[in-house]
Amino acid sequence: MRRLAATLLPVLLAAASGAGAEERRPRILLANDDGIEAPGLAAAYVELSKLGEVTVAAPDTNQSGVSHGVTYAVPIFARTIEPRAAALVPGNAGPWYRIAATPATCVRLALTSLLKEKPDVVVSGINRGDNAGLTLYVSGTLGAAREAAFDGIPAVAASLVSSPSMDYAPGAAVLARIVRETLSRGLPRGTLLSLNIPATAIKGIKVVPHSLKSGTNAYERRESPRGEVYYWNLWTEPVDPDSETDVGAITAGYVAVTPLRVTANDPEALRAIESWQLR
User: Fold this and answer.
1) Cβ(181)–Cβ(51) under 8 Å?
2) What is the mean pLDDT of each run of 10 residues along the chain (279 residues)?
3) Cis status of the peptide bond prior to 202, with omega within 30 of 0
4) Which of 10, 134, 166, 240 is buried most deeply by CB count within 10 Å?
C-alpha cells in the first residue's frame, strides 16, 4: 500500500498542478484613446473576454492624437464603473476604471497601482480610424500599447479605418485571434503589434512594415461670430499604392499587422557619426 501511494503521489500532484494551470485564465489589460464610452472598446472587451480575465483602464474622455503624452502635476482621478458591455459577457465582467489621464498614463497607473498582478498582454483599441503610416507617431492608441512594451509586456494596438457604419465586430474577432496567438507564442521583449483593420470585408491578414507616407494637416482660416480669427485642422489620411505596407494593405482590404520596436536607435547612423571623430 505504501509503495502504491509513493508511486501515485507524484502523479496526483502533477495532475493537480496541471489542472490549476489550466484553470488560470490569461490576464488581459484593455485600454484605448477614444475614451471609456467608445464602441470600439466594448467590441474588443466582448471578444477578449472569451480569452481571459479582462480589466479595462481607459481615459474618461477622448484622447486621440496625444501620442505618448503623460499626465502629471494634476490629480489623476480613477473611478471604478459598471462594465459597459457586461450584458454581452455574462458572469465574466472584469473591473472597469475610468481615468482622468492620457492613454499611456492609464496603462502606467494600471500596471503600478490598480492591478494586483502583471497582465499577460495589454491591448489598446479598437480605435476609431486607422493608425497606419507615420500616423503611428501621434496615436494615443499606440502610446498606450507602447507603455506596456516598455516593461517587456506583450502589447497589441488595434485600429479600424473610418467609415459611416463603423462595424467593429469583424475586426474585434481578428484582434482576438491575434491576441490568442500572442499569448501562446509571445513577442520579443520591447515589441508591440500595430493592427490596422479595413472598413471593407476582410480579405485576409498581411504582416507588413509601416508605410513612410504621412497624412496631411491643412489649417483652414476661419472667423468666429465675434470676428475672432481661428484655424480649423483638416486631416487627410496617408495614401500608399504599395500593398506591402500597412497603408496599402488596408486599402486593398487586408488587416495589416505591423511589429514595432520601442527602441529608436539607428545603428547605421551611429557608425557613420562615430567616423566624424567628435572628440
Assistant:
1) no
2) 44 43 82 95 95 95 89 93 74 84 96 95 95 92 96 97 94 97 96 96 95 84 94 84 90 96 93 90
3) no
4) 240
Cα-based distances in Å from 215 to 5, 87, 232, 256: 70, 39, 16, 17
The number of C-alpha atoms within 13 Å of 250 and in the hemisphere containing its C-beta is 30
Q: What does the DSSP 8-state code read for residue 248? A: H
Q: What is the β-pairing status of strands 121-128 and 155-160? A: parallel
Torsion sign across C-alpha atoms 244, 249, 253, 256:
positive
Cα dihedral 242/248/253/257 (nearest 10): 110
> How many other CB atoms sit within 10 Å of the CB of residue 242?
15
Continuous segment of H or E residues that includes residue 108: helix 103-109
The dihedral built from the CA positions of residue 135, 141, 142 and 144, taken in this order, carries a sign that is positive
Q: What are phi and psi of 103, to 5 degrees?
A: -60, -45
Residue type, 146: R
